[in-house]
Amino acid sequence: MDIQTKQQEIIDEFEIYDDWMEKYEYIIDLGKDLPLIDPALKTDDRLIEGCQSKVWLASSFDGEKMHYTADSDAIITKGIIGLLIRVLDNETPKTVLETDLQFIKTIGLQEHLSPTRANGLAGMVKKMKQEAIKYLN
Amino acid sequence: MYLCTPVVEAYKEIQTENLKTMDKKPFNVKEVRELFPALRQQIYGKNLIYFDNGATSQKPQLVLDAINKYYSKENANIHRGVHFMSQRATTDYEAARKRIQLYLNAKKSEEIIFTKGTTDGINLVANSFGELLQAGDEILISEMEHHSNIVPWQMLCERKNLTLRVAPINKRGEIIEEELDKLLTKKTKLVALTQISNTLGTINPIKEIVKKAHVVGAKVLVDGAQSIQHTKVDVRDLDCDFFVFSGHKVFGPTGIGVLYGKEDLLDRMPPYQGGGDMIAKVTFERTTYNELPFKFEAGTPHIAGGICLGTAFEFLESLDMKAVEQHERELQKYAEDMLETFEDLHIIGTAKNKTSVVSFVIEGLHPFDIGTLLDKQGIAVRTGHHCTQPLMDIYKIPGTVRASFAFYNTREEIDFFIKALEKSLHILK
After folding, report:
1. What's B243's DSSP letter?
2. Sign of CA dihedral B146, B152, B158, B163
3. Are A77 and A119 in contact (CB under 8 A)?
4. Could you give the dihedral angle defined by the CA atoms of residues B373, A8, A49 and B365, in that order, rounded to the nearest 10 degrees?
5. A22 touches chain B (CB under 8 A)
6. Which residue of B has its CA nearest to A28?
7. Is B157 an active-site residue?
8. Which member of B369, B376, B423 has the closest CB to residue A74?
9. What structural domains and CATH numbers belong to chain A?
10. From the first residue on, what is the mean pLDDT of each consecutive set of 10 residues in chain B (429 residues)?
């Protein structure tokens, strides 16, 4: 599945919710269900400190594609991380760098990725891209 | 002394009896709410419930009209123009200073310095009063202080080789009197304390602390950012040496605030910033400084802010502050009673004497998640460390959810908040 299809799939999933609380309920369920990161990898050097919630990000490169796992101490942040990873994981560094994560805006969660937001997600996306740069040929 | 003519004229014109006043009415929350247009709006299709008054207050129509009127008709630079508009703006700006002086019961309007806000006021004192201090002197604060009443003192201590002492608090969030007494010594030159804690709601016994501090010869700065809007402040009754607050938390504009200081102290302090308005005469060899309050107001000030802060105080004067205090305490107690029925919920800050602020944590849940879900139901609360990280470390929590009330909030809003919280927890757990 290419990255645009993945984004579209998420947009379709969210289309059935017209109420904000239902939307968040779905995000929270995603956050609860996903085992995102090996606890041994939740180290300080992988920590992206938001003003409020914390995010841990671990990245690796298998010679062709990027792999990401991440976690947060806040469940809503964790749910959104799940969506970001679903899109960016298992993609080439070039795709990670070039992709506009428009699905976040379409499903109405862009506020969570704003740099002024206190949850650490903007920092996480930046870090995911920085990691990808390292493996760009 | 070279005080520009319009300033002298402005002072002459401002007699106490010339200040316009509003009729004082019995406090009625329904009526008072009507005066705040921002409260009549929907967020995500839900009626807004604004419980973030600790961060900033909404503005009454009177203040909004004053801002509009100033920029539409009255805009002019002050203290130097010979023309009508400049003189009118100068008179209005100085009238605002007079009104605030009278409200605070300061001796003279020269003791009212306009600043950008609380943080600016504290930095002014740290940089100017701080210049009078010497290596080995001590500054005493408490564990519940906001970062703006910690960091400027740390910076000063580093610069001048002073020592910062911190008075501890008990579990309820009250300063431990005996510990404070031990830390108050001849070395203490300044005690800087908040009157009401922004995170805990604790009301500190400022008057008693001022008395004790004065016995050892220390001056006292009171951070009034969270008190001026909740209780009647009388600086002469408190006998504090400095009192600082922000306009935007007391129903006025952002970017304006006040530093009150006792005249003899302000006179002894060197200027903080240099520029226009703060000078008497400038030559390349030597500059002499203007008198109070202008010595501390370099450059064109926030004229609209000052004038409209005066309007906010005109509004404040019309309120029955005793009734306001009672209403706000009832809101706080009612909210706490309702919250205590929740399983695993802990109220942070249970001082015997507290007001207007209810901070809480729920075991196993992150404040950010609770705040996000309340927001989607139209409820504005603050989550996080509230710029009191050392305090969060003491309670060993990452942050709290904080509901902070103003007099325009109602019990019905708290009922709705409680329902919204129940719904949020149902989703989160």
Report:
1. E
2. negative
3. yes
4. 30
5. no
6. B428
7. no
8. B369
9. 3-134 (3.90.1010.10)
10. 54 73 90 97 96 98 98 92 91 96 97 98 98 98 98 98 98 98 98 98 98 98 98 98 98 98 97 90 90 94 98 96 96 98 97 97 95 96 93 94 98 98 95
* ipTM higher than threshold 0.95: no
CB proximity A24 to B under 8 Å: yes
Question: Of the candidates B92, B131, B126, B128, which has an alpha carbon nearest to the alpha carbon of residue B298?
Answer: B128
Nearest by CB to B44, from A20, A28, A119: name it.
A20
How is residue B422 written in tokens? 């129940």
Q: Which amino acid is at B379?
A: I
Q: What CATH number should be reported for the domain whose range is B321-428?
A: 3.90.1150.10
Q: In this structure, are residues B118 and B244 in contact, taking their beta carbons and an 8 Å threshold?
A: yes
Q: Distance between CA atoms of B75 and B65, rounded to whole angstroms? A: 14
The reported pTM is: 0.94
How far separated are the first and last CA of chain A, in Å rounded? 23
In sequence order, the 6+-apart residues with CB closer than 8 A to the CB of A38 are: A58, A69
- Kind of pairing between the strands at B379-380 and B49-50: parallel
Find the residue in B nearest to A119 (Cα).
Answer: B368
Give chain A positions within 8 Å (CB) of B373: 21, 24, 76
| DSSP 8-state code for residue B169 | B
pLDDT of residue B396: 95
CB contacts < 8 A, A to B, total: 44
CA distance A105 to B168: 46
pLDDT in tens, B365-400: 999 999 999 999 999 999 999 999 999 999 999 899
- The reply to whether CATH 3.40.640.10 applies to domain B74-317 is yes
Q: Outline which parts of chain B fall under CATH 3.90.1150.10.
A: 321-428
For residue A45, with 0-12 CB atoms within 10 Å meaning exposed, 13-18 middle and 19 or more buried, which class applies? exposed
Rounded Cα distance between B217 and B411, Å, is: 46
Mean pLDDT of chain A: 88
User: pLDDT tens, position by position, for chain A (137 residues)?
Assistant: 899 999 999 999 999 998 899 999 999 998 887 766 888 888 888 888 766 788 889 999 999 999 999 888 899 989 998 999 999 999 999 999 999 999 988 998 888 777 666 667 888 888 899 999 999 87
Q: Which residues contact A22 (CB under 8 A, 6 or more apart)?
A: none
**Residue of A24, A73, A77 lying closest to B373 (CB–CB):** A24
Distance CA A124, CA A57 (A): 7
Instruction: Check CB contact under 8 Å for B376 and A53.
Output: no
